[in-house]
Amino acid sequence: MSFREGDLFEDSFLGDFGNESNTNDLGDRDDDDDFLDVYNLTPRQRLGHSLQKMSRKLVQQYNGLPWWQRYLAYFAGTCLLIAGITLLVFHDRILHRIVETSNELKDEKRTSFVLVALIFVVAFPPLIGFSLLGTITGLIYEMSFQGWLILAVGAVAGSIASFATFKTVLHSRAESLVHSNRRFEAFSSLLRENNSFWILALLRLCPFPYSLTNGAMAAIYGLSIKNFAIAQFIVTPKLLIYLFIGSRIKNIGETKSASSKILNLLSILATMAILTITAWILYFKTQRKYAELQRRDQQLNADSNQNAAFDASFDI
User: Is the pTM above the cut of 0.85?
Assistant: First the structure.
């Protein structure tokens, strides 16, 4: 198949997928269209639109890469494949070694301080790794008050420090973080309407990158450090999820029973599914509220323009 034929096949596939999802009118839209239009679609149409948009974006990004970055992408994919096969074949040995290492780290007094420091640091964008560190804490301390305290202290202190830094010293960078993502812009508009700590806590439960959220919210005018700090304390019970997942992984490595391993694995998958579904439900509900605010503002602007036009004609 030639390169041109491949392009035709790709366009045909994406077009057929759009027809099956009843999103022909969305297929020709530009990617920069207002994302709020998506919420007027049915779940099936929304899924089709998202997959179609993601496919186009991935193809465009890949075609725009230099040749060396394409080879680097191939290399990274190959490494991930090898790592997956290795984990599949030697998973018993790997899990056993993880359990031994976690027990050794638990006996070290400095482990808790190191974890708090690392969790504190990854609160600053663009660093990543909060979920990984939370799971590691669960591997070491399991479902315990000590594990929760380590996560809570590191996460709350790091979030407040990151927010304060970007609100004072790096405010221009915080502005760029907000405008880098339309979802951040949507939530910033909501928080300008109501920046109570309950709304902030709801934002923390939504599926946004941990560190980027800390920096982006610092750009919102009128949002106080006090309300931000209270919101971080409110959502600390969510940290127990990381401890639970880490403890289940450790149990899988410790037990020899196949049924126990399956139950632990299913509990991990169920927890992640519930967390994901809950987060996305909250996210979509909040986005609908934002859409209502947008429509209300547009209606008010339209009414004010009509009144201005009427007054002008009356004066004449």
Answer: no
